[in-house]
Amino acid sequence: RVFINDAVCEGCGDCGVKSNCVAVLPLETEFGRKRMIDQSACNKDFSCLEGFCPSFVTVRGGRLRKAKAITSDDFGPLPEPAKPGLEQPYNIVIAGVGGTGIVTIGA
Length: 107
Known about the structure:
Blueprint: E1 2-4, H1 14-19, E2 24-29, E3 32-37, E4 56-58, H2 102-106
Antiparallel strand pairs: 1-4, 2-3
């Protein structure tokens, strides 16, 4: 995995320009905008390393920490939605990207 040390990063954005990767994201710090890598979006092709930047840290054999689970007690019960009258036919616009179930739900 590749990480960006924000203490070293100067926020030049060369990593994002070289890789054109959606996993390279802006990180707002007290010293200005830096860069970070979204590990859940990283495809691990390491093209971001092509940028001229000393802030990259590569970790081999490590694992990401799992986020703390949200307990169901944190939220109250949801109210029942108001049901519209169905006296006449109606249309629904369904928008999406292939692979997200649009064809299935639209059938």
